[in-house]
Amino acid sequence: MNTDPTRLSAAELAHAIASKELSSVEVVQAHLDRIAAVDADVHAFLHVDGAGALDAARAVDERRASGEDLHVLAGVPIAVKDVMATKGLPTTCGSKILEGWIPPYDATLVSRLKAAGMPILGKTNMDEFAMGSSTEHSAYGPTHNPWDLTRIPGGSGGGSSAVVAAYEAPLAIGTDTGGSIRQPASVTGTVGVKPTYGGVSRYGLVALASSLDQAGPCTRTVLDAALLHSVIGGHDPMDSTSINAPVPSVVEAARRADVKGLKVGVIKELGGEGYQAGVRARFDESVTLLQEAGAEVVEVSCPSFDYALAAYYLILPSEASSNLAKFDAMRYGLRVLPEGIEDPSAEQVMAATRDAGFGDEVKRRIILGTYALSSGYYDAYYGQAQKVRRLIANDFSTAFEQVDVLVSPTAPTTAFKLGDKLDDPMSMYLQDVATIPANLAGVPGMSLPSGLADEDGLPTGIQILAPATQDERLYNVGAALEKMLVDRWGGPLLAKAPQLTAKGA
């Protein structure tokens, strides 16, 4: 066994802790030491709770010593995206408007992690209110990609993908509104899963777009993602959109890893013009491996996907403008008094606070969403976008009548340089062109590493999509492909990444 706990998978750590080869305290301390060594360069964490994580680890070790039967992941540490309410820990959503806010309660997802005995290392960086594809829109500075510190780690959940890629945590939680788990996974060489909408509770998750948001796992292996999914999934009466059904058998599917006889559909509309040659080449190689393993591969057309990006950037801003209206300087969060006004009105205080507290991208989307919902424009914009959403869902339904899963490249390019797209919002939005359809339809999706692009030696990802509530299909196909790719590479893709030290890459 590797003697460095930070290099072990979550499944390996769980076995080592359960067999008492390692204590949870030793594992947590090793990860805290790793965070201290490299996070000044990566900037993946906004808040580290070392004392709390060690206390939780000691409690697990004591319970195990007393003979208590514990969850399989008990004692394995995790990081949580800073968009989820954590009792006693800051929750800022990467925004100045929530700077210093400490929730009085835990999100359901966080409660489930604690109930499983998983120490929480801290809160990860993100684009402000999950608006972005690079984690450059965080009010607290960008996160850096561990493969190349001059490049982005994806977004909005770049902090969660980066802590896993940098070996600062074996597991992390992200959220995915249009690809914010899967796109960061693609550009950091990690695994990211967006469960079926409603498969993981959204209670305590600060909403961006309520009909699109979904929390899910960020890990280094498909099995680790399945183990984490089994912890956080399941019905929650506190969430009106929660699916009242058992968690899909994702762990069993990940262990089965057999694609023989399955039909795999390659989405015609996702992979042509605009996709980097190296991304496409690694994708094609992965599809060939699936064929060689006994899967039948066919091309599938989903013509409405061509309109997904446009529909998404009407629906999301509209819902965001409504959800973010609660940040009004009256109830909690930042309050700024306007300059030069002796006795300001509530509206003036609200305007000054939102101007100071929100960043440019958030303001851009609020303005767009408010316009799309305004009188005279609702039917022309928001209403039409919802009709396109239905067409996209219909395309998925038709496709899944022909095949078991769909595949595409996860992101059109590898990680771009920090600052390259900050002044070009449309170019930034296009990073999610392949991931957005799944959110609009509510179907589950997974990204796993497909190799390194020839042009720049940076990670690429393959996306797997399955019908709603059939999440286990992702894990079966993903685990089978992962095994074939790792065998081809001679080890995990992350083993090829430059090694971070206290001084950087």
Task: Write a concise synopsis of the structure shown.
The protein has 505 residues and is of the alpha/beta class.
Keywords:
505 residues, alpha/beta, Amidase signature (AS) enzymes, 11 strands
Question: What can you see in these coordinates?
Answer:
There is one protein chain. This protein has helices spanning 10-18, 24-42, 50-65, 108-115, 158-165, 182-188, 222-232, 250-256, 277-292, 308-323, 346-357, 360-373, 379-400, 425-429, 436-441, 472-489, and strands at 45-48, 78-81, 120-124, 172-175, 191-194, 215-219, 263-267, 296-300, 405-409, 445-452, 459-465. The protein has 505 residues and is α/β, with parallel strands linked by helices. The protein has an 11-stranded mixed β-sheet with strand order 1-3-2-4-6-5-10-11-9-7-8, sandwiched between helices. Helix 2 runs antiparallel to helix 3 and helix 8 packs parallel to helix 16. The radius of gyration is 22 Å and the shape is globular.
Give the topology.
Blueprint: H1 10-18, H2 24-42, E1 45-48, H3 50-65, E2 78-81, H4 108-115, E3 120-124, H5 158-165, E4 172-175, H6 182-188, E5 191-194, E6 215-219, H7 222-232, H8 250-256, E7 263-267, H9 277-292, E8 296-300, H10 308-323, H11 346-357, H12 360-373, H13 379-400, E9 405-409, H14 425-429, H15 436-441, E10 445-452, E11 459-465, H16 472-489
Parallel strand pairs: 2-3, 2-4, 7-8, 7-9
Antiparallel strand pairs: 1-3, 4-6, 5-6, 5-10, 9-11, 10-11
Helix pairs in contact: 2-3, 7-8, 7-16, 8-16, 10-12, 10-13
